[in-house]
Amino acid sequence: METTARQKDRPAKYSRIRRIILSRILVAPFVILLLVCATLVYYFASTLHARVTSEMIRIVDDHRNMIDQFLLERTEDLKFIANTNDYEFICREHRLAEVFEKLQKSSPAFLDLGIFDHSGNHIAYKGPYDLEGKNYQDAPWFQAVKEKSVYISDVFLGYRNTPHFVIAVKKEENGVYWYLRATIDTYYFNNLVENIRVGKTGEAYLINKDGLFQTKQRSGGKLMETDPNFSLSDLPNGRIVTYSAADDQGNKYRYAVGRLQQTDWQLVVRQDFMDAAAPLIQAVMAAVGLIFIGGAVVVVIAFFLASNVAYRLSVADAEKREMTNQLIMAGKLAEVGEMSSGIAHEINNPLQVMKAEVTMIGDLFQDVSPHSDADRENFDLIKDSVNQIGIQIDRCRKITQGLLKFARKSDPVIRKIMPGELISETVGMVAHQAMLDEVVIKTAIAPNLPEIESDPSQLQQVFLNLINNAVYAVKDVPKPEVRIEVDQHNDRLRIRLMDNGCGIAEDQLEKIFLPFFTTKPVGTGTGLGLSTCFGIIENLGGKIEVESQLGVGTTFTVLLPIA
Amino acid sequence: MSNVQVLIVDDEERFLQTTAKIMEKRGVAALRAPNGEGALKIIEETPVDVVILDVKMPGMDGVETLKRIKSSHPLIEVIMLTGHGSFDLAVSGMRLGAFDYLMKPCDISQLLEKVEDAYAKKQAMEERKRANGENGTDAPNPAVLRKSNASGNIE
Q1: Alpha-carbon gap, residue A330 to A527, rounded angstroms
Q2: Residue A269 burial by CB count (10 A; 0-12/13-18/19+): exposed, middle or buried?
Q3: Is the pTM of this model over 0.90?
Q4: More confident call, A354 vs B94
């Protein structure tokens, strides 16, 4: 027996079970998934960092060597010229042009070539500028080469007033020094360094020991300007240092810096941090995407799984409860039935005696006659009284017979029945009375219903009882209506009787099939109707259920086996 | 009323008294027995046409009494009377040759009608027996029993 209250708490319990299953299914995979992703990202990040660093170190190392090699070769070129020519000879104009031509063949990096005497006078010059005759006594490069004999200058403006740098060598000839100086083509040298590329945003440039640009910086630094990010002034020779730093705009860069051997310059390779970390970011994005997609799939599957399991559980639960209820109800009814049949039997005997007495009195009345008018009146009163006793005995008899009928498990007379016909016939029996009560009875009988094998007279008794109850329930509501629907539900025939009456309170709903339970006024009903119905339907292998909602109506459902 | 001899068997003393009185008043001779043993004794001593037999009695019960009556006096018709609504009991009673079956409390007039019917049947049986001479079989034939009539009385 399912009541409305039990149906009400079912969805709540159902969703609670589902929530528990869901959380248990989801928590473990998600924790593991997150751990795996975090571990992967961590290891990937550290590997990537190491790789980027080592790559930058390699680039710095390679290119530093290349630049060193270049500077060394150019110096050697000059040294060779100085060693293979004497001062007098080279100062001749055509000789210098010859030498310069050879020099340019050896490397197009040479822009011009000049000869200086021991006091810094520009004796001979071959190149695009007019520098002959100028004195370089105080030029820093001249001071330096006098001391070191080979000198590579920083980039400076000089007389020509354009940024350039020079390589100078000192030559001793008969105790007197003279100097050879060549300018390196700034563009050529720039290209040499600038062409180093790392990733998308990586760049390379040279700065001197004071942080002035010796080559242009692709991202904007001009020659001879101070590198705003210059930080390492005393870099150890040979070693390459890597570090991360942000510029004044807040962009983070990864740096690799190494000092040249030929001169005091530093080769800087720097790469935008985001660029260097791009593969990492992609990996993280992929991991996050995977977590989301995988998570969504897991959630969806888990949701369906949990719903399914919870649904099955709650259905099994409801079935179990229903079965228990029915067992309890059947047990109760059997007990009550046994007891009531005993009572009925015991009461029937005295009723029989009383009935005989009443008949006796009736017979005796025929023999006696009143003597006066006063007697006649009393006579009639006594007659009426005796009559009433007879009527009350009959009433008792109906009760005891009802009890016996309820308790009796009579063998049903099984026949083939067309359910539609049976219902229509039964409705026909009460239609007249219903019409008088202004109750509308609507029947909806599904087509092609199968034949059933059951006891037609017992079923008719049940439906008559249920329809009468329904009509009684709707008598006092506006628009009284009783709907009867007959259809096939799974492998059973389902007959539903719905009324729009006042409904049955929950506490009464539980007792509704018990004998002597009635809500009708005293004397109107015995309270045996529904208990008899219950007994009959159970006996026929069927099931009878009730659902009710106060103020809305009541539905009785009878399920009968088809085959 | 015809001159039928009725025997009422019931453990309810007052019922016996009153019913017998009513019957006598209505011109039906009624004997009384408080139990099965008493009934069998009376049958041996006095000719009886119809027995009204309570099913549930202390000592020998109605069904047992019915069996004994039918075996010693097959022509006597028996009407069963019970306060119990058992269909099975009714069926077994009918099978043992009872004429009909009435539920307690029953109307005395209805009871008397049944007695009339039973007596009529008994007379018909005796008639046939006489017509067949002494060689005809007089064992009760269950096929003759009016089963539909019996079940009709059990509501």
Answers
A1: 17
A2: buried
A3: no
A4: A354
